[in-house]
Design a protein that fits this description.
single chain, 455 residues
């Protein structure tokens, strides 16, 4: 009996694609500032699929090759889908952002330095339009290209969502095939073999890792809150059996103790940023119970149930609303403690809660999306949107993609579509990339009349 050995092989088309991909990989990715002979949008898109920074040959005087490479490495190391293009002043701007996004085909934040002008647009899943506007406005005074692009990149990476596309590979150059590129080739094989589920699982693991990292940073702030509340309980020095104590006082004290224990146990069980909201809800309730207890002991009228001080919830329940204007934002009324009300009345800055970020100490509303559930637990309901309007955190929380990554914070949002770094091709909301040059910068940006028609 003749035995014929049978082996499984990839379909012809898939094998051809794999061979072609490996051939491209053998040449290695182009450097961030590689010059190309053509300056069409397709050429720029091809370069951006290989590296996050493209410098047009005619604009090479604006950004050196070393600076472009350093910027590209920073973006890759941050693992965010930020695309930067440096183009000459006379480059055609008609539908430039929309066409570049279509040709690149990757969900992300796109920034363009065109001559001495600058603008950016993004898929709302990565960064909402208001947040993009705020970021562009914050750097529009920078005339030097290196300074402007570095400042924008620093601030954008701290606030945007999503992950870098696999086609960029690693930020390190070992002279061989990058691991990210091999993943891209592997994806072709997996898809050809019906392994879509494996890619879905990889994306879920990536999201889970991002959430864990965000929670660990948030944990430091929440632990500070819990510790501060515990110290308040100690300073109170209340004994249920002390002279003058009544049932109402004992009930207030019991609620405060219960809130303290609830906050500690909820934080110990937290596995993602949205799990923090019950922690700060418990702390807010506990602090109000302490305020009631203090009023009863001192014979004062019981306090009105008010939200915590906006500037730092550790200040305790607010006593009034005061008008405050954030940097680059519009005036709004926020709940304030007595000390911050006095500071504002005297023309001084309030005592703002700042937290550590990769880019230094910043107010919690400018420190990233993970702080949404933290703030939502303290302020909750319909109050929070008005307090945070115009801030980066408020802009992020108002997008459908926010709930998928960090929980609702306030309100309920639907989720869906592509995440940052996903290859969507031409399937994206063109409205995210529409408008004239300078629209991303929030208005007047050095004479946008020359750029009408959709840059």
């Amino acid at each position: 009996m003749k035995v014929v050995a049978r082996t499984r092989s990839l379909p012809g088309l898939l094998l051809a694609l794999l061979v072609a991909a490996l051939t491209v990989l053998a040449t290695g990715p182009a450097p961030a500032s590689a010059a190309t002979t053509a300056t069409g949008v397709g050429t720029i898109a091809d370069a951006l699929r290989e590296s996050p920074v493209y410098v047009d040959p005619a604009a090479s005087a604006q950004l050196s090759a070393a600076d472009a490479d350093a910027l590209a490495k920073q973006i890759k190391d941050a693992d965010k889908p930020l695309f930067v293009a440096v183009l000459p002043a006379g480059y055609p701007t008609q539908d430039l952002f929309q066409n570049l996004r279509t040709d690149t085909g990757v969900t992300g934040l796109y920034a363009i330095r065109l001559g001495d002008r600058f603008d950016a647009k993004a898929d709302s899943a990565v960064l909402p339009r208001t947040a993009v506007t705020n970021l562009v406005t914050s750097v529009k005074g920078d005339t030097d290209a290196r300074t402007q692009l570095t400042d924008f990149t620093d601030r954008a990476l701290a606030n945007m969502g999503g992950s870098a596309p696999a086609s960029w590979g690693s930020s390190s150059d070992d002279g061989g095939v990058s691991s990210g590129a091999l993943i891209g080739v592997g994806a072709v094989v997996v898809l050809g073999g019906g392994g879509v589920y494996a890619l879905v699982r990889r994306n879920r693991r990536r999201k889970a890792e991002e959430q864990r990292a965000a929670l660990e940073r948030l944990r430091v702030v929440v632990d500070e809150d819990i510790t501060a509340f515990g110290e308040e309980l100690d300073r109170l020095d209340f004994h249920p059996a002390e002279a003058g104590a009544d049932d109402a006082m004992r009930a207030d004290y019991e609620r405060a103790l219960d809130a303290y224990e609830q906050a500690k146990s909820a934080m110990a069980a937290a596995t993602k940023p949205e799990d923090v909201r019950p922690v700060t809800e418990a702390l807010e309730d506990g602090r109000f119970s302490l305020a009631q207890l203090a009023a009863r002991r001192e014979g004062r009228p019981l306090p009105e149930r008010r939200p915590p001080c906006f500037f730092d919830p550790r200040h305790g329940p607010s006593v009034a609303d005061a008008v405050w204007t954030p940097a680059g934002g519009a005036p709004r009324e926020v709940p304030v403690c007595a000390a911050d009300r006095a500071r504002l009345a005297d023309g001084h800055d309030p005592a703002i809660r700042e937290v550590d970020t990769d880019y230094g100490r910043r107010p919690y509303w400018d420190a990233g999306p993970a702080y949404g559930p933290w703030a939502g637990g303290y302020f909750g309901g319909g109050l929070l949107p008005g307090l945070l309007v115009g801030t980066l955190l408020g802009s992020m929380m108002a997008t459908p993609s926010y709930a998928a990554d960090y929980g609702t914070g306030y309100g309920d949002f639907t989720t869906g579509g592509y995440d940052g770094g996903d290859v969507s091709g031409a399937d994206f909301d063109s409205g995210d990339f529409s408008g004239g040059f300078g629209d991303g910068g929030g208005g007047d940006f050095g004479g946008g009349g020359d750029f009408g028609g959709g840059f």
